[in-house]
Design brief:
The protein is built from twelve helices and two strands, in the order ααααααβααααβαα. It has 287 residues and is an all-alpha fold. Strands 1-2 form a two-stranded antiparallel sheet. Helix 6 packs antiparallel against helix 11 and helix 8 packs parallel to helix 10. The radius of gyration is 19 Å and the shape is globular. The N and C termini lie far apart (43 Å).
């Protein structure tokens, strides 16, 4: 939960800075280079790094399927931060979204009771499960490039969420390797981890550059835990309860979590102040 808090605050600060960049910078390394000169983005990046460190500690102590749903709570903290900054009330839809996200996380964990899991051999065929995830991320980027700006932002954000899920799995693998007393230097996972992290960061900042947070963040928040849970089950052999009642609860929890994330992400509280002011002006002109 601490990781989710820091990630949510970090995403708000990063998007506030990235949204000011020209669209021509999307998917270019110079976007990251420009953002590195902005104090607001650096502060958000620092919060995100601290959140990822706390998330890594959690992944060291628990299975991916236990940690990922809790990390999805970052959108709730982002919404709360926006509420405190802009002093705007929570409407009924926001309350519904908060209940769905929180209740979905609790229901999934209660019904699934994720357990088990072990570190596979570094050259095990189980790691091939990460390849389809990378291909899905690539397809999402290709799809977004040919679509409208809104779809582009959502596609890039979803692709970032997929890679963040892969990043979480690689992080847990590296930590378990250390716990087992083996050297990380002879493993490929620690070298793949920063590569996946940098590409995921570029995709995420490009999504933030393309559209306000209420469009770009929900896709990342919803896709990351689903990717992590699936990869955790395939690669680490993590198990969920599979009785009919448990499966129904797990599916209902995931659906509620994703639906609530989408509802919260559509909130105008997560838009930039200039966007909200512009909408208010348009509303006055229409009246």
């Amino acid at each position: 939960m601490g990781a989710a808090l820091l990630l949510g605050l970090g995403f708000v600060a990063q998007q506030h800075a990235a949204y000011r960049e020209p669209l021509e910078e999307m998917l270019h390394v110079r976007l990251l280079l420009n953002l590195m000169h902005m104090p607001t983005w650096l502060a958000g990046f620092g919060l995100m790094i601290c959140g990822q460190i706390l998330g890594a500690v959690a992944l060291r102590e628990a299975d991916v399927a236990e940690v990922e749903p809790l990390l999805a709570m970052n959108l709730l903290f982002a919404l709360t931060a926006a509420h405190l900054v802009y002093k705007e009330p929570f409407g009924r839809m926001l309350q519904l979204g908060a209940v769905l996200v929180s209740g979905g996380v609790a229901l999934f964990l209660f019904a699934g009771r994720p357990h088990g899991g072990h570190l596979p051999d570094p050259i095990s065929s189980q790691w091939l499960a990460a390849l389809p995830a990378v291909l899905v991320a690539t397809a999402l980027v290709s799809l977004g490039l040919r679509r409208s700006l809104k779809i582009k932002a959502m596609s890039l954000a979803a692709a970032a969420g997929v890679l963040y899920g892969v990043q979480d799995v690689l992080t847990r693998s590296s930590l378990l390797t250390l716990d087992s007393g083996l050297s990380l230097l002879g493993q490929w996972q620690p070298y793949a981890l920063p590569c996946v992290a940098v590409v995921g960061l570029l995709l995420n900042q490009s999504a933030f550059d393309a559209a306000p947070l209420q469009i770009s963040l929900p896709a990342t928040t919803a896709v990351e835990p689903i990717t992590g849970i699936v990869l955790g089950a395939v690669i680490f052999s993590e198990r969920l309860r599979v009785s009919p009642e448990a499966l129904a609860g797990e599916v209902a929890g995931l659906v509620a979590m994703v639906t609530g994330t989408i509802i919260l992400g559509r909130s105008r509280l997560l838009a930039k102040p200039a966007d909200r002011a512009s909408r208010r002006r348009r509303g006055v002109e229409e009246r």
